[in-house]
Predict the 3D structure of the following.
Amino acid sequence: MASDGRAARVAIVGSGPAGLTAALYCARAELKPVVLAGIPPGGQLLITTDVENFPGFPEGIQGPELVERMRRQAERFGAEFVDDNVTRVDFAGRPFRLETGTRGAFRADAVIVTTGANARWLGLPSEARLRGHGVSACATCDGFFFKGSELAVVGGGDSAMEEALFLTNFATKVTIIHRRDRFRASRIMQQRATTHPKIAIRLETEVEEVLGAEKVEGLRLRHARTRAPSELKVGGLFVAIGHDPATEVFRGSLELDAKGYLRLHDQTRTSVDGVFGAGDVSDHRYRQAVSAAGAGCMAAIDAERWLAERPAPPAGSASPK
């Protein structure tokens, strides 16, 4: 190991579906990728129970098991995993430098960023306890499990309206709960939601507790202005108050959009030549395991082709971008 960091042809930051797929493709291309997997490794799938919309698993699969299988597949072809967080990056020139919390620094000729995005939660102990047992942040992922149920969606933006409208395909009734006296969603999305026969609206209302021992059975609510308590019987709660992309460590080094997501051009290329991105770190529209995996494949292929056109710089040198 050199004094300025261990060398790798490709470093992949993150280990959700995008990072694991990128690792598989890079490993099969004999690039010997190092995956700086994060702590805990595995991304949002680690807190996902039944995954029934990932191709190849007709009976469904648990999120953590899917992560473990994808990791083993990448390791089979030579990917190396380092379970540590990246704390600082230097993309001023090649080789790029990435520092970790406890495992030292790594140098790489190309980097693929797949750090994902984290759903915002209400911060209630009962919400955390029942996450995966009726509490979800993804209607597209979990709506199918709630056929014939009454559901609640918390949020006031376009995402909340979209979640509620999607859930009407399965639920008998969907109640949108928002703590303010008006929605911030676009006018057309508000109109679609408020005029839907299966959707009810509860404005100026806060969720104080998710009720249920082993699964969601209802919500304890409080009026935001009068503080009057109430309860709502539902079989599931969908939290749609936004996501936070995990891009803080890249701020100032890579171009981000107004919401902090990694800005890409030509599919997977970032603002720094030789640094690529994939998955939820740049995707605030789809946020699916399968779309992230597909993007990871694309980023790996782009990185492989980019490297094939450029010789590795001498150790300790910084080549122009």
User: Anything to note?
Assistant: The first strand starts at residue 6 and ends at 13. The chain is about 25% helix and 25% strand. The CA atoms of residues 104 and 126 lie 38 Å apart. Helices lie at 17-28, 63-76, 125-129, 139-142, 158-167, 187-194, 289-308.
